[in-house]
Amino acid sequence: MDRTEAVAREDLVTFLGAATTETGQDGFYAAAGGVELDFLHEYVLVNYRELYAATLAASINDRNAGLVVANLLTQPGDPIARRSEGALIAARLRRMPPQRVWKLFEGLCRAGRGNRRLRAIAQEWLDGRDPAFDAVKYRRAMRVVVRHLHLRVPADVADVLTGRWRRAGWSAGGGAGGGVGAGGPAGAHPSGSVLLETWRRAHFEDRAVFDLPFTVAEGLAARRGIRRAELLRRAHLTSHERLRLTTSAGRLGVAVAGDLAAVPLRRLTTYVLSLDLAERERRRAELTQALRAAARRAVARTDAAGSWGRVAAVLDDSYSSSGSTPARRAPLIAAVGAAFVLEVMAAQFRSAWTSGRRDALLATPHGSTDLAGPILDALDWAPDLLVIVSDGVDTDPPGAAGEVLRVWSERIDDGSTAVLHLNPVFDPDRYGVRTLTPAVPTLGLRDPADLPLLRSLAGVAQGRMTRAELAEWLLGHAT
Amino acid sequence: MTRLNDGTGLTDGTGTVLDFAGLQPRPAQTWGDVALIPLVRAEPIRDLRLDARAVGAVRAVPAPDGSYLVGYVPHAYVATWTPDGTPAASYGTQLLDPRRPPATAEPTRGLVKRVRSAADDAARLRFLPLVLALDGLLGLEFGGPSIAWAELSRRVVRQGLSPRCEASIRGSDVAGLADALRTFEICAGQCGLLLYVAGQLISAFVVPHPADYRALHASLLLDLYGDVLRELPSQGGRWEPNRAGAGTAGAGDHGLALPAVDSLSALRAALARATDSWAASAAETWLGPDLFGDTLTFAPAYRMGRYRLARFLPSFDRHRDNHLGEAIFGPQGALAYLHTYRLSMTQVRRGRMLRALRAADWDLDATAAGLGVDRAGLMVQLDAIGLAGIVRPDLAAAWRAARRRPTA
Asked: Which residues, at least 6 apart from A121, have a Cβ–Cβ distance to it below 8 Å?
């Protein structure tokens, strides 16, 4: 019995590591996982369905959350468990970016899936959104899903989805025809008629284009021959769009720079690392302050800042942290973000990069990976917690970090220092993340904001919880 | 019998050996069958640098401030380094005075047509692709007959051995090499690389300065490798970085194991000891006298300042690895630049034949006697290694016929 529980714990940690780091993109060393990930999902679904559903509440990334939802909705399970599964799914869908949810539903519909449960969940999610906005922004996917699942939408939204809006005399709110499919009671929600009307006019009038969501405006602007610089100047940009477009808009002579104050940590780190070193140096005060604030916000709901005591971080900025073309600098982004979160959580903080540089703001992927030296330096300092953020490939010399940690934990460790290896890189060959040594728990890291969760998960990985307790723990630590 | 010019053939060996002093191997980084062993210089060479004209606008290299005294341009390197700014390929590694336009080392423009030259990659480091580079190098060494014997074909008398065609493999076609080079993490101070495929040394590459290495690292992929790679067994399987024991029969296996110690300082000392002893034995294993031995024949090519450029040929001994290549030596024979090509067995046999021909001054009878065969036997060997074209066609046919109908 004990053995079974231990295996379950191991499997869960493996799955969480994979589902946190796997993004469907190529990595530095390995191409994107395919069958490996499918197998892993299938394995956990069949063997630990309740844990599988509970991971939706944990730190797994949105792509894998989508896969979990799809698997749960298409594979029949225990009827009694469905209620709690449904609640978990609904909560996760609300947290996911809408384009991912539409893509998930569209995939299920195109695969011919359709059952009452799927329909109810999709309808519930849609009811929580502005259907007019989604009809304008995600029209293609929404059209497939609404038609296949017979979802209720307001009449003018239905007209937009079906193309009936092109009929002469149509105006949003009034509508010329009935709903899509089953139709249903229209007007249960604010119909967003203004947005639909703007969208209709934007097909005929330049001025209306600028009032649309930016990505929609982009397409219509191209069709209407509006210059990009003008679009950028006049469009309404969200804060994320501002951040994303700062550089390319700057090239066109348009300043769209937004406020860094509200940007989430991971996104902000991505932005900062995309700047060249000279600019980072020039804006040092502003960027550092923004990163610190983002880190504080990210962990505001968890443990108190400064409550982790002495924390040492060994961070990998070797060449392999440059990631790959689709996921540029992904491992480095995780490491820099983690450095700022740890700084917030620690009473005393000390960090070391493998390159020997000390400045997280100027981190850049370069050179070979010497983890062993920085780890020894960190252990010398006798911290309460040592966090290693690395892809687990130490090249200089290979295997030294694992050996050092093994000998340390076998002979020298007096229990006062907890060591945690966080790996931002999915390794398809291992169905998870690469470890340095079995002596140290290794967890997947995607969003540095999850560090408090990961820290307690490390305790779980080495603890003696049963399956039921594990599921409870996962639900209790919902992010 | 006409005496022809001696061409660029071999002169007597100078007795030089490749001395890797000052270069220290670091642990191999492996990727499937490919193992890359970085060579690190404690002290970079500063007065010999990749020539600034060759580097051009490449940003990766800090532009040499003019403090270097001698520039070099690797063999087959395509760059806009001519006075009029047209791209050209270097034919053989060149030593240049950075203050003067390249006069003696005029690049061969005819070769450049083979290079794709889009306007946008004007600033990219390039090498001549494939065939031309190795053929060129062999052509530099074997100029052709010096005496126009009647038995030789007219083509070989008139044109020497060119155009020669050596089968070679572009680096990007070597399984795993692209990934191995892409994922390779360049060490601090790295000035060279030993490239092993399936446990065999394929190429050794040394430059004077780490910045030069960084500039040239990616070009190793465009470089060419002898068709010896076709002869190597692939170990197959999925590639994985730093898989223990992969590739080089021990070279990729760092095999680091630390003793159980009871304090952090002891652990640190143990790690340092393990690393040091490994480095010492690695230097012995990979850079010791066995790497190329004293079997190379050197031909001095240029001398400039304190540096001399030499080309070398292997012993063509069938029981050894045979590398040909180019090297630049500094004072006291210190190795500043090295690039080698491993020859395949067929190429080794061809080399032996050419060497025998040269020793006999291209007298076919004397060559046959030197090899211990008759004319028909010589023809068989020439046919087997693809050098039949040097014999006058009518004689070749007659000798082949003699082989089929041995005289009683």
From this structure: A73, A86, A89, A90, A93
